[in-house]
Design a protein that fits this description.
Blueprint: E1 2-4, E2 6-8, E3 11-13, E4 18-22, E5 29-34, H1 38-54, H2 62-78, H3 80-91, H4 95-118, E6 122-124, E7 134-142, E8 145-149, H5 155-169, E9 172-177, H6 183-194, E10 202-206, H7 209-216, E11 223-227, H8 230-242, E12 246-250, E13 256-259, H9 265-277, E14 289-293, H10 297-308, H11 329-344, E15 348-351, E16 370-373, H12 379-382, E17 389-395, H13 398-406, E18 410-411, E19 414-417, H14 421-429, E20 437-438, E21 453-454, E22 457-458, H15 463-468, E23 471-479
Parallel strand pairs: 1-5, 8-9, 8-11, 9-10, 11-12, 13-14, 13-19, 14-17, 16-17, 19-20
Antiparallel strand pairs: 2-3, 4-5, 6-7, 7-23, 12-22, 15-16, 18-21
Helix pairs in contact: 2-4, 2-5, 2-6, 3-4, 4-5, 9-10
This protein binds NADPH dihydro-nicotinamide-adenine-dinucleotide phosphate.
NADPH dihydro-nicotinamide-adenine-dinucleotide phosphate binds near residues 151, 152, 209, 232 and 334.
């Protein structure tokens, strides 16, 4: 059993309260997690506060911060086999997804290092400035002490997206991982120390919702960054309003995947399956609503049902397996309830719909990839499930496709499949979502922003926008008018 300690002020600390972390594929306990008491949460925030105001960290320039980011990227690559192994065991990620995650986390730190170096933290605005009157600058200052909360679906990537901009901006943070998946973030803590990050800049703890609440309520927290469900996001926003804290929220989604009649059929079928089944559907940007042009639906449906059978379900370490368990029994019950509710409301089951109960699946939480035809009022067309369930419907016109796609409280992502790029681009411009792919799905670019419209969140991660989310802009006015008689505005007083 691995011991997952609290990482506070550069030290790994134990506590008297521990729980086990469970492998969702086998039900086995794989690690003992040390949980923080209220005092330890306070110690972690105090460490971040001290690091921000009283340590050498405040004198690190952008190149020193970029050097650390680059070193973290290198050390993630050096320890990639170990990280992949633990990501599989802790989160139920299949080998191919775990490999991609570790690569993506390293690549994010590397790209961010370049962005940090290139970013101008002080910029004179020549249009606003006038010789003899004023020189006006935008100065970007670190936001300060942050509380960050992440979910269990992409544990290392989520930790990277949160920690990266804290370091790039010169801020400090306490990061809380999900109770289910603390292991790779703890290895990342070792990497941070080995990369020369001063103690206290990043502190990493694990705990449940109460720990999260205690953390965000701490009076020394300036910014809250949260990734998780929209429901919890709303409660965090409400709490943040008490002190007008800076917040970033990356929340749920119900993204639409639109197949136009001129799409490449084979590509679009694989794309539709990849969009909703990657990591068993436990990705916030999953394409969980499939909208297909009515004129091609019969052959599309036939190809989809045929192709889904080629996906190998199994033990996540098996390199041929593309589909593993969902995170835990609670999530598994939620998914099965959604399937049953959908069918009760008139959904037509095309494929799947069962939890796998026979060996070798009986010890883990394996749910079949599931295809259900529905109308727009069906529960699974509206609510985020976070599981391998696709809500399929058809459209007659482009207008109807756009209307269906936008008929959601969410607006995180979506895609259009077509050979006609100008038509696809026109549709993309009318989708109310933060990311739209054309003939692609799920791929993210660390140099580009990711985040949601509507109830999918506030703010963006990655890209320059992601770094700016951890910077406050200060307008610096330097007078170029230093003779009293010219400062006629003073005369308003005399
Ligand atoms: P939550 O949104 O409940 O949890 C996400 C993170 O927030 C976890 O670290 C959790 O801690 C913490 N947390 C939970 N409640 C609070 C609170 N009141 N105050 C502060 N922190 C809190 O997601 P769940 O893991 O419970 O999953 C529930 C549903 O959320 C899923 O079925 C899915 O629909 C959605 N979800 C969406 C994600 C996304 O990226 N959009 C990611 C994960 C889930 P802990 O887990 O340790 O209790």
């Amino acid at each position: 059993m691995k011991d997952i300690k609290l990482f506070i002020d550069g030290e790994f600390i134990t506590s008297n309260h521990t729980v086990d972390s469970i492998n969702p594929a086998t039900g086995e306990a794989i690690a003992r997690i040390h949980l923080p008491t209220n005092e330890l949460i306070d110690t972690a925030v105090e460490a971040a506060h001290k690091a921000f105001y009283q340590s050498e960290w405040k004198n690190f320039d952008k190149n020193q911060r970029a050097d650390i980011l680059l070193k973290i990227a290198e050390k993630i690559k050096e320890r990639k086999d170990e990280l992949i192994e633990w990501e599989i065991k802790d989160s139920g990620s299949v080998l191919r997804k775990a490999k991609a995650d570790i690569h993506n986390a390293a690549s994010y730190f590397k790209v961010l290092a370049g962005q940090c170096r290139a970013f101008e933290f002080e910029v004179k605005d020549e249009r606003a400035s006038r010789d003899g009157f004023s020189h006006n600058y935008r100065t970007y200052l670190p936001v300060g002490v942050c509380a960050q909360i992440i979910p269990w679906n992409f544990p290392l990537v989520m930790a990277a997206w949160k920690i990266g901009p804290v370091i790039a901006s010169g801020s400090t943070a306490v990061l809380k991982t999900a109770l289910e998946t603390p292991i790779t973030a703890s290895i990342l803590a070792e990497i941070l120390s080995d990369s020369g990050l001063p103690p206290g800049v990043i502190n990493i703890i694990t705990g449940d919702a109460d720990v999260g609440q205690q953390l965000i309520a701490h009076p020394k927290i300036r910014k809250i960054a949260f990734t998780g469900s929209t429901q919890v996001g709303k409660s965090i926003m409400e709490k943040a309003s008490q002190r007008i804290q800076n917040i970033s929220l990356e929340l749920g989604g119900k993204s639409a995947n639109i197949i136009l009649k001129d799409a490449d059929l084979n590509l679009a079928v694989d794309g539709a399956l990849y969009a909703f089944l990657y990591h068993q559907g436990q990705a916030c940007d999953s394409g969980t609503r499939l909208l297909v042009d009515e004129s091609i639906y019969p052959q599309f449906k036939e190809a989809l049902v045929k192709r889904i059978k080629d996906i190998k379900i199994g033990e996540p370490h098996d390199p041929n397996v593309g589909f593993g368990p969902v995170i835990n029994s609670k999530q598994s019950k939620t998914i099965m309830n959604y399937i049953q509710s959908s069918l009760r409301e008139g959904g037509n089951l095309l494929y799947g719909g069962r939890k796998l109960e026979d060996a070798p699946f009986n010890k883990g939480e394996f749910i079949e990839p599931t295809l259900i035809e529905v109308d727009r009022n069906n529960i699974i067309f509206k609510e985020e499930i976070f599981g391998p369930v696709l809500a399929i419907t058809t459209f007659r016109t482009e207008e109807e496709a756009i209307d269906l796609a936008n008929d959601s409280i969410y607006g995180l992502a979506g895609a259009v499949w077509s050979k006609d790029l100008s038509r696809a681009k026109n549709i993309a411009s009318r989708l109310e979502t933060g990311t739209v792919w054309i003939n692609e799905y799920h791929l993210l670019n660390p140099g580009m922003p990711f985040g949601g419209f509507k109830q999918s969140g506030l703010g963006r991660e990655m890209g320059e926008e992601g770094m700016k989310a951890y910077l406050e802009v200060q307008h610096l006015w330097i007078s170029d008018c230093n003779e009293r008689e010219k400062k006629v505005w003073f005369d308003a007083l005399f």
